[in-house]
Structures are given as structure tokens and as C-alpha cells.
Design a protein that fits this description.
Oligomer: homodimer
Structural class of chain A: alpha+beta
Number of helices of chain A: 3
Shape of chain A: globular
Helix content of chain A: 25-40%
Number of strands of chain A: 7
Chain lengths: 127, 127
Amino acid sequence: MTAPTELSKAVETYWASAEARDWTGFAAVLADGVVYDLPQTRERVRGKEAYVRFNREYPGDWHLRIQRIVAGSDQVVTWIHCTVGLEEMYAVTFFTGDEEGRIATVTDFWPEAYEPPPGREHLVERY
Amino acid sequence: MTAPTELSKAVETYWASAEARDWTGFAAVLADGVVYDLPQTRERVRGKEAYVRFNREYPGDWHLRIQRIVAGSDQVVTWIHCTVGLEEMYAVTFFTGDEEGRIATVTDFWPEAYEPPPGREHLVERY
């Protein structure tokens, strides 16, 4: 368990390094045994080397910025805005840290747009 | 802006009341002008009355429990596990509060399962 501000800084470096394709800086904030989970596909990546490679090899000219960051006592959550060409998407990511303030677990969600189900038009507006 | 523990308690009551279909308890932790956003459908619900109704009228025998809660200085995030019959899903929700400690904004994401894209099998395992 790490102090919230410490993990929060590691998370900011994580996203800034990814955006800059600075894989040395990215690796520096990861625990050696970092575990990445993607619950939507039930994929898991174990260890710093594989996880840096997973990100470095990720296809597309993607760009991202933090839209919200929430730092709790032992976890940090980000909501990022991501563009790939003209496509826009967002991701929500949960982070936990180790005792050295490095990122120990990363859990990513990539929610996709969908059409609202019928029957609630009387309560909602669209934006 | 409310103290993190205060908003955190309101959020716990929000989910417990929803699970119990206690709409009076649910309404009690909402600001009158609560705004609900669902970025995936770009739907918005404004005001306590409409928002309680939106939840009360939500179809299906849904049940939910908090899997993770992260309380920051002015925001709370939950990751909930939800079942509807045999179907399992999860939601990630961002909350902000008003000065009375009630919930002022709710932003919900419902990520859906999908098949992983090819090309990264050398780095991932499935769980």
C-alpha cells in the first residue's frame, strides 16, 4: 500500500509516458510483477516486460488525455479520453500500488457507445 | 464540495437503497438537481424526481453489490457487480457531491464483454 499522492503521481506519469511513447518512463512506474486485467475480454498480462510490450505494440495512432482522476487511500481511478484518428473513445482504469509507490495492478474498462433501449424517453434527454 | 467520507457514505446508501428498492432512502441521498449521465448512449436525466423514477422503472430483477469503492477528495468511484437472472455484468460510476453531502452528479459506464482482437496472444492469458 502506497500513499495516495504517490500512486497518483505514478498514474499521471503512466498516462503521460504512454502518450509520449516514452516506454522507459512508462516502465519506471510499474512494479516488476505488474498485473493487467481487461475484464471485458478476460485477458490478463503479467509482468513489466510483457506489459510494456503490450502497450508499445498496441496498433493505431492513439492519443489520450486524463479527463478525471480520483485518488483514494489505496487506489486511483482515471477516466481517460482517447482518440484514434477521427474515432473518439474513453476508458476507465483502476490502479493499485506496491509499497515502493509503483503500479501493481491495472484494470481497464473500454465502454462502447450503444443505442438506448426503448421505454425511457419520457425521462431522458440526449446530449 | 463535500468531505470524502460523507460522499462515500451517501454512495454506499445509494447502492444499498437501490438493491433494497428503498426509493425513499435512495432519494434522500440525492441533491434535488441531481444530473445523471450515461456517456455510452448520450442520455441525461435531470432532477431527483425523474432520476428516482428512472431507477424505479428500470426493468428486470437486477441485483447489485459494490466490488470496489474509491473515495477521492471530491469524487467517489464505484465498480459494481450486477446480476439480472443468470446474466452478470458490471458498471463503473463516478459521483460528485453538493455542499450538503448529497449526490449531485452520477456518471455511469456499462462496459460489455467482447472478443479480443487478434495479434496479442503472445502477451496475454485468458481468465
